[in-house]
Amino acid sequence: MTSLRYEAPETVEDAVRLLADADGEARALAGGTDLLVQLRTDLVRPGLIVDLKRIPRLMEVSANGAEIRVGAAVSGAVLGKSEAVKAAWPGVVEALELIGSTQIQGRASLGGNLCNGSPAADSVPALIAAGAVCEVAGPGGTREVPVEDVITAPGRLALGPGEIVVSFVMPKPPARSGDAYLRFIPRTEMDIAVVGAGVALTLGEDGVCTHARLGLGAVAPTPLLVEDGAKALIGTKVDDEALAALAAAASAACNPIDDKRGTVEYRVKVAGVLARRAALIALERARSNG
Amino acid sequence: MAKYHVTASVNGEPVEFLCAAEQTLLDVLRDELELTGTKEGCATGDCGACSVTVDGTLVCACLMLGTEAEGREIGTIEGMADGDTLHPLQRQFLEDAALQCGVCTPGFLVAAKALLEENPEPTETEARYWLAGNLCRCTGYDKIIRAVMTTAAELRGE
Ligand SMILES: Cc1cc2nc3c(=O)[nH]c(=O)nc-3n(C[C@H](O)[C@H](O)[C@H](O)COP(=O)(O)OP(=O)(O)OC[C@H]3O[C@@H](n4cnc5c(N)ncnc54)[C@H](O)[C@@H]3O)c2cc1C
Ligand code: FES
Ligand code: FES
């Protein structure tokens, strides 16, 4: 048996140094709801685990006039109690809260959900729709990476050795903005998304859409930002015609797999339906955020 | 193998233990502290038999390392009864026959207690969703939900 080492640093700098200087494989630990399962099933065999939860910056939620910051290791149970984030980006909070059971919520984080690299990670399409940017710290300093650029292939990230996500930064949405995330699963709880769709949009005073973003999950090797989805909504009153164009853009962006949860044809179709339904909820929220 | 020295509190009592980095909190509770009320059903976060609270938050002990417990307050099924006096949830589970083999029961009780602390007046739907991560292969859930709803009303003095 190899001897596994555990460290719980209290600063970002120490965490980065420990991860970057490790001899063998080193893993960051947030809630452990992916990592401990992978350890248990021998999918990963690191020599070092660096627990990020003693680092205050990874555990904080803060909001100022311009932006909202959510620490990468904040759990669903904690984020679900943040009125500021729920008011600004309810879709992001709902997406994180969809993950697993109450017990899983006690630990699961946005950073872990993203950095596990799954194409079906529930919070990722919602973060993409929200225009969230990761603050990444590494041996070379700090850089900003848009969420849609983090996962490059299933289980593969655009992060170098020793790099960690410190926090997610989202703009404070302007008036008349709303977002929503919906996923389709065969049951009502505790399952992996067949399709996930996140939509964020902003309306002008005249009700015309001035900004929109569409994120999709589980329909391609990585979560997607669908630019054509935004184009379908911007400049319209988000009427039936625009919603049909959004659905078509969502379906066209899909490059899914066939598996026991859904065929290619089914996923392509459901992606359009969910994008449309998420847009309707986002629209409703935008209209009530006058 | 390197051992880590951990100081924590379990059910209000200070504890110290040595554990290896790969040991989960569930392994530590059962094998080091001999608190075997917390059960292992799956070891992958799916069944809830290992439910405990950490600083008041409900989690799966199988998905947390023993080393992570440093300085934390752990709550387990062993802390639920007050001496010989059962917690009202425990009493109601017995009265309603909300258990058969009993493997899932400690997890359900710990999770249900956390529910009633967070939300003393849950709807049946809320109770079912809160307990969706606790699996039972014997009872069919109905008696468990019934016992939780009855206890919630009792604790509210209804
Ligand atoms: C029963 C069960 C049900 C689940 N249901 C769902 C579901 O419905 N939807 C869903 O999307 N997922 C689900 N999951 C998967 C998992 O809970 C989520 O992906 C969760 O968000 C992971 O977060 P974590 O904090 O626990 O990550 P961890 O397990 O701590 O970490 C996951 C990975 O990310 C890395 N990492 C963590 N934080 C950082 C960071 N800040 N910087 C760099 N790397 C980091 C780790 O090294 C590890 O490789 C489920 C898991 C279980 C056990
Ligand atoms: S043993 Fe922990 S959830 Fe099943
Ligand atoms: S009583 Fe047997 S698993 Fe629930």
Polypeptide structure, described:
The complex is a heterodimer of chains A (290) and B (158). Chain A has 290 residues and is an alpha+beta fold. Chain A folds into three domains: 5-51, 2-Layer Sandwich (Uridine Diphospho-n-acetylenolpyruvylglucosamine Reductase, domain 2); 56-171, 2-Layer Sandwich (Uridine Diphospho-n-acetylenolpyruvylglucosamine Reductase, domain 3); 177-288, Enolase-like, domain 1. Chain A is 33% helix and 25% strand. In chain A, the strands form four sheets. In chain A, strands 4-5-10-6-7 form a five-stranded antiparallel sheet. Chain A is globular. Chain A starts with a strand and ends with a helix. The model of chain A has no long low-confidence stretch (mean pLDDT 95). Chain B has 158 residues and is α+β, with helices and mostly antiparallel strands. Chain B has two domains: 4-77, Beta-grasp domain (Ubiquitin-like (UB roll), Roll), CATH 3.10.20.30; 88-155, DNA polymerase, domain 1. In chain B, strands 2-1-5-3-4 form a five-stranded mixed sheet, sandwiched between helices. In chain B, strand 3 (51-54) and strand 4 (57-60) form a beta hairpin. Chain B is globular and about 50 Å long. The interface between A and B is medium-sized, with 29 and 34 residues. Bound molecules: flavin-adenine dinucleotide (FAD) and FE2/S2 (inorganic) cluster (2 copies). The site of one FE2/S2 (inorganic) cluster has 10 residues of chain B, from loops. The site of flavin-adenine dinucleotide has 30 residues of chain A, from strand 2, helix 2, helix 7 and strand 10.
Task: Summarize the topology.
The complex is a heterodimer of chains A (290) and B (158).
Chain A: E1 5-7, H1 12-21, E2 26-29, H2 35-40, E3 48-51, E4 61-63, E5 67-71, H3 76-79, H4 83-88, H5 90-97, H6 102-105, H7 110-115, H8 123-129, E6 133-138, E7 141-146, E8 151-153, E9 156-157, E10 164-171, E11 177-184, E12 195-203, E13 209-217, E14 224-225, H9 227-233, H10 240-253, H11 264-288
Helix pairs in contact in A: 5-8, 9-10, 10-11
Chain B: E1 3-10, E2 13-20, H1 25-32, E3 51-54, E4 57-60, E5 73-75, H2 88-95, H3 105-118, H4 124-130, H5 142-155
Parallel strand pairs in B: 1-5
Antiparallel strand pairs in B: 1-2, 3-4, 3-5
